[in-house]
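quick one, 269 residues, struct below
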Amino acid sequence: MASLKYPILLVHGMGFRDRKHLGYWGRIPGELEKEGNTIFFGGQDSCGSVETNAQHLAQRIEELVKEHGIEKFNVIAHSKGGLDIRYAMSTLGMGKYIATVSTINTPHNGSLTVDIIKYFPNWFVRFACKCCDICFKILGDGNPNVYDAVMGFKTSDAEKFNKANPDVPGVYYQSFAFTFKTAFSDVIMWFPHFVVKLIEGENDGLLTPRAVKWGDFRGVYTGLTNRGISHADEVDIRRRPFTKKKGDGISDIVDFYKDLVAELASKGY
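---
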């Protein structure tokens, strides 16, 4: 059992929110709390732009600091959540409250697959994104903006973002990549995996290791069995272990997060 000096702030990615029931992170928060850690959630929109989500995160952090007397946080962010928190830290001044940032398949370097969207008629892309906005508004988002969120994943936009949001001195940044093992590792994400693999290579159903490297890159992780680990698996969407087997590879995503936290604790965070 290993507990951290600073509490954990979990920052979700796109598509789901931090709900009490059917929450984004599955069993992960509960298991980390059993290890003696304090958990807080970002609570930003599921499909807001980086800018508006970062503003929400900044407000959330300041509220938690004031209410609980927190000195710093250890941030664990999945997917786009890593961009949201980096903007909040670098542009909105929240870096002073952050000790570490661990990003799980965050598109720091952009997606070559998303770059291809420029070949589609812009009116069609905007219409599709607006339809998504309506759905996410109904589901509880205050200011959904799927178009800005997705277009921000282009490699050219990622390059601009990184220049505008450099790492905050004194904060430890680390990143992790995950991949499928076979084309049908995840029936939910097999098709996007197929498309991304044709364009970019091995991926987790959305992003390649090239896209997610940032700070101290800790390598590419996959499952113990032939199934591998998908973008959805990374946040325990199925609420169960991948396999009961033990060996070279991850058999339960919860174990990955326990190890991540234990290592940060050993470093004094």
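The chain has a mean pLDDT of 91.
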